[in-house]
Amino acid sequence: MNKNGVVIEERGNRVVIATGLTKKSSNAKTGGMVQIYILHRHESPVAAVKSGADYVNCGNCKHRSQDFKERGWFVNVGQGPSSVFKAYRRGVYRKVTKREFATLFGGRTVRFGSYGDPAFMKPETIQGIASVADKWTGYTHQWTKRPDLQSYFMASVDTPSEAAQAAASGWRYFRVSPFGNTEKLRGEISCPASAEAGKRTVCADCKLCDGARPQDGRKNIVIQDHSSIKRTNDSLVQIQGVR
Predict the structure, then answer these.
(1) Is the entire prediction scored with pTM above 0.90?
(2) Exposed, middle or buried by CB within 10 Å (0-12, 13-18, 19+), for 241?
(3) HSE (side-chain half, CA atoms, 13 Å) at 225
(4) Hey, which residues does 174 pair with through a beta bridge?
(5) Which residues neighbour 29 within 8 Å (Cβ) at sequence distance 6 or greater?
């Protein structure tokens, strides 16, 4: 059995896998976080994108597309997600129960949704991991349907109007700004781990993307769209100003 990863949920067409338990992630932006993947259980990530079956782990996210050239998201499904799926299909990850969460995730930093939307995890799984983790990050496009997740995750928004709606509904949000758009909205700061902010830290050391607290005075986060689909040869520029 591979000790670096475990299956924490397996139901219907969906499987949830945590990796990075013994070997730190090499992701330069996030740092050495435990990575949680929400995947289609029976189709590879690439096949699920092509068939549209990735709805089970991505829902109604507007960045989904069966045409890879039209996908507007950061994750290359042919790399990390596919490697995790292949290992799962080989049976190298053991299944664990909530009773083991303290041992597996206690004092760790956790990235909910390295691929897939964590809103498709069981609420008790989310609560169980967050209750023992030192800190975590998480983002959901299901925020209009899942107000119960406000204290765990950031609302993923793509426009100023969505940002305003999320904030009015009690969410803190993470907004993806069009590449080259250098304006901040009021109450936003650039993602401190982003290229345009000078990569001042990594997600593992930052505590900003863990949802909203009562009377939370922390800023919302904005980052320029740096997905591989929309990347150009232009240099990223600092997002600045307040509209």
Answers:
(1) no
(2) exposed
(3) 19
(4) 156, 221
(5) 193, 194, 199, 202, 203
